[in-house]
Specification:
By secondary structure, the protein is mainly beta. A hairpin with a 5-residue loop joins β2 and β3. Strands 1-2-3-4-5-6-7-8-9-10-11-12-13-14-15-16 form a 16-stranded antiparallel sheet. It is built from 2 helices and 16 strands.
Length: 328
């Protein structure tokens, strides 16, 4: 399924005339303002030009969906608002019957996307707000997917780095409100899980991003371009993953920081994909799945690094719940 890529509810064509009450030109074509009740039960009221919907108008579907906006030669084109049967809505620019340009989509679960669209899909710069958690993704989208440089903002920390196919990849950093940053990188790894199907054992491979921490520093200004490698600054703390059999008696705080290499806790929330209108214009495939864990524990110690140890421990980066909708 392509993200938000399904066709809108099909409107009646120019040859499906139905009943009409309004202005006509000398050739007898619908021309000017008029009202039409179409054979499929839909209604349209607005401007016509040479027999086609053209200009401002209101098209109401018998399903309860409706479009209020501009038309060009029977197609939604210009600025308009589409309200879907489930209550979700899109307000913004259209081109050739598709969301195209800048627009705002409000989903049925109160999530919102504000930004650029291309050929019916989120594409370009945009912000997706997760209503349930208050987190938001601010950055680049490609064909409906989170992809490119972005910032994932949570209540008390944020992640800055690159995304690919909705997953963080490569170098990045976590910025914490207590006044420090943790640098590192995400590496994609395959995780196996068995599933029995028709008395045969099927092994499925799932790609899971794993976070590898390298250093902790003071706060620094972030730009959307990250170098390939970031050597630690003087005085930074180097991270090493703990061995399977811990030698000696390491402090619990040091162990917690080393565990950061194991990955990031996954805060997945339902409501990613919106069903679009293969089954009636009304639903979108695109409600996003928040997959990068929010850390909401408050630090208590005076020392920043010690407070960081006590307050934040990023574990595995995996799906923990199935979303109501999902991307292809």
């Amino acid at each position: 399924m392509s993200d938000l890529g399904s066709e809108e509810l099909e409107e009646e064509g120019e040859n499906d005339l139905g009943e009409y009450d309004g202005e006509r030109n000398e050739a007898g074509e619908r021309h000017g303002h008029g009202k039409a009740r179409l054979p499929n039960g839909d209604t349209y009221e607005g401007s016509y030009q040479h027999g086609k919907r053209h200009g401002q108008g209101i098209y109401k579907f018998k399903s309860g969906a409706r479009y209020i906006g501009e038309y060009v030669k029977n197609k939604k084109h210009g600025h308009g608002t589409f309200i879907y049967p489930d209550g979700s809505r899109y307000e913004g620019e259209w081109a050739d019957d598709r969301r195209h340009g800048y627009g705002v989509y409000c989903y049925v679960n109160n999530d919102t996307y504000t930004g650029e669209w291309f050929a019916h899909q989120r594409h370009g710069q945009g912000t997706y707000f997760y209503a349930e958690t208050g987190s938001k993704y601010v950055g680049t989208w490609v064909n409906g997917q989170q992809e490119g440089m972005a910032e994932l903002i949570h209540l008390n920390h944020r992640y800055q780095g690159k995304f690919l196919n909705k997953n963080p990849v490569g170098p990045g950093k976590y910025v914490f409100d207590i006044g420090c940053e943790q640098h590192g990188e995400y590496r994609l790894t395959d995780v196996e899980r068995g599933e029995e199907e028709e008395e045969e054992e099927v092994t499925l491979m799932t790609v899971v991003p794993k976070w590898k921490a390298t250093s902790i520093t003071e706060l620094a200004l972030w730009t959307p371009t990250l170098p390939e490698e970031q050597p630690p600054a003087d005085g930074t703390i180097q991270e090493e993953a703990p061995g399977p059999e811990g030698g000696g008696e390491p402090a619990e705080d040091d162990q917690a920081l080393a565990d950061l290499s194991e990955g990031e806790a996954d805060l997945t929330r339902p409501g990613e994909d919106d069903e679009d209108a293969t089954r009636e214009e009304g639903r979108e495939d695109g409600q996003e799945e928040l997959r990068y864990g929010a850390i909401d524990q408050e630090p208590t110690s005076q020392n920043k690094v010690t407070r960081f140890h006590e307050a934040f421990k990023i574990t595995s980066f995996q799906n923990v719940a199935s979303p109501r909708f999902s991307f292809d």
